[in-house]
Write a structure and sequence with these properties.
Blueprint (H helix, E strand, L loop, with lengths): L15 H11 L6 E2 L10 H17 L17 H11 L6 E4 L2 H11 L7 E4 L5 H14 L2 E4 L9 H11 L4 E7 L11 H10 L3 E5 L11 H4 L3 E5 L11 E5 L39 H11 L1 H20 L4 E3 L12 E5 L4 H12 L1 E2 L1 E4 L7 E5 L7 H17 L1 H7 L1
Parallel strand pairs: 1-11, 3-4, 3-5, 5-6, 6-7
Antiparallel strand pairs: 2-8, 7-8, 9-10, 10-13, 12-13
Helix pairs in contact: 3-9, 4-5, 10-12, 11-12
Length: 411
């Protein structure tokens, strides 16, 4: 197969003057050097200003038939907003429903796909704990079975991952749930191959896209999954309380909505998923500003910058004898996430010293389903600078040098 040439970037990932200007539009309000951006991104001023502009209107005119935002449905959605999201992520507007967060979309699918007692849901231990809680509730309520695919922790090839899914899928598997990007390590799952495999076995595929939307470049119509749920406040830098659910047109009728449609939307309508009651319209009404911010930079440019920031620390750290990387920084596509383990030092101890002595925040983690899967996670965002990343590297080396004698004695 001939590789497709990658178009040149409009902005280089190391053009610091440009990226400092982007940081200035975001104005992060961190209390320390924040190198973990997986929970939220700093929304740019244009988004924050738009929300503030609409707050009074949303509170004063929410139920007025002549309200200034009457083009938005009660749920805050509109065909124009759905069209913007569909255009950015490579889908049709009639396959995209506006939600209030990733979990709403995930819960809709996990509760809405018809399952019988004994049917199997195949998931990974890297799935978000709330996702697994939903499956476990259905297991208790409906008698379905939760099974985990056995995946390696850390670096893994696409071939090994697909082989593990192929081995785990059985004749009783009806639904496959997986993250697009594993948050703690930045592993990008081969969704296209897994979705094709699941479809060949008659299983529905749900992808948690909380850490891929706005982070890596992809098209939903290329992924081939049956459903994809995400939020817009992480790597799309939109307001908290916004997200979307994509369901492939052919499978919309196979998923019950979380709330019954009171307007009689047919089973094949994506809009049946949007009838959730009244929402605060100032939030979804600012989605166009978030899309404009991302388009102004370019997704390829964003992704390249995030990878550049990760490589700036990860390349230096992986050369250290006490560092074991959990992230393949040479993988393509890569992410801005990285994880590692320090030989001879607990992750929590390292993170505490880094925060208390150097005023730098990273995340010490243990996987919910298997606490032996532990490490340290970083995810610099567009609002971080190379100086902040470099200061983290120097602080890490200082901590390692200081603990060297204790490590040698333990060895």
């Amino acid at each position: 197969m001939t590789a497709t040439a990658t178009p040149p970037l409009n902005t280089a990932p190391d053009d610091e003057a440009y990226w400092l200007a982007i940081r200035d539009t975001m104005q992060p309000m961190y209390v320390n050097t924040q190198l973990v951006n997986t929970r939220r991104g700093a929304a740019p001023r244009t988004v924050r200003d738009r929300v503030r502009e609409l707050v009074d209107l949303s509170l004063a005119y929410e139920l007025d038939a002549y309200e200034p935002m009457r083009e938005l449905k009660e749920s805050g959605s509109s065909l124009a907003i759905r069209g913007l999201l569909a255009g950015y992520f490579g889908a049709d507007p009639d396959e995209v429903a506006l939600t209030r967060n990733a979990m709403e979309g995930i819960a809709t699918v996990l509760n809405g796909v018809a399952l019988e007692p004994g049917d199997e849901v195949l998931a990974t231990r890297f799935c978000y704990d709330s996702n697994l809680a939903i499956i476990r509730q259905r297991a208790q309520r409906d008698g379905i079975v939760l099974t985990f695919v056995d995946l390696p922790f850390g670096i893994a090839s696409d071939e090994a991952i697909v082989a593990a899914f192929a081995h785990a899928i059985t004749g009783r598997t009806r639904l496959v749930s997986l993250p697009h990007v594993v948050a703690n390590t930045g592993l990008v799952m081969p969704v296209r191959e897994i979705a094709a495999l699941a479809r060949s076995r008659g299983a529905f595929t749900l992808v948690d896209g909380a850490h891929s939307a706005g982070h890596i470049a992809f098209r939903l119509d290329d992924l081939g999954c049956d459903a994809y749920a995400t939020c817009l406040h992480k790597w799309m830098y939109g307001p908290r309380g916004t997200g979307f659910l994509y369901v492939r047109r052919e499978r919309i009728g196979d998923v019950w909505p979380l709330f019954a449609s009171w307007s009689g939307k047919p089973a094949h309508s994506i809009e049946k998923f949007e009838e959730v009651g009244t929402v605060f319209k100032a939030l979804p009404a600012s989605i166009p500003e978030a899309i404009a911010f991302n388009r102004g930079i370019g997704q390829a440019e964003k992704s390249a910058r995030l990878r550049y920031l990760r490589n700036r620390w990860a390349v230096r750290l992986r050369a250290h004898e006490r560092i074991r990387m959990l992230t393949d920084i040479d993988a393509d596509p890569g992410t801005g996430f990285g994880g590692f383990i320090i030989d001879g030092m607990e992750s929590e101890v390292f993170a505490r010293i880094l925060r208390e002595e150097f005023d730098i925040n990273v995340r010490a983690f243990a996987m919910e389903e298997d606490p032996t899967m532990r490490g340290i996670h970083l995810s610099p965002g567009l609002s971080n600078t190379v100086e902040e990343v470099d200061r983290f590297v120097e602080a890490t080396f200082a901590i390692l040098a200081r603990s060297h004698n204790a490590f040698m004695r333990a060895g």
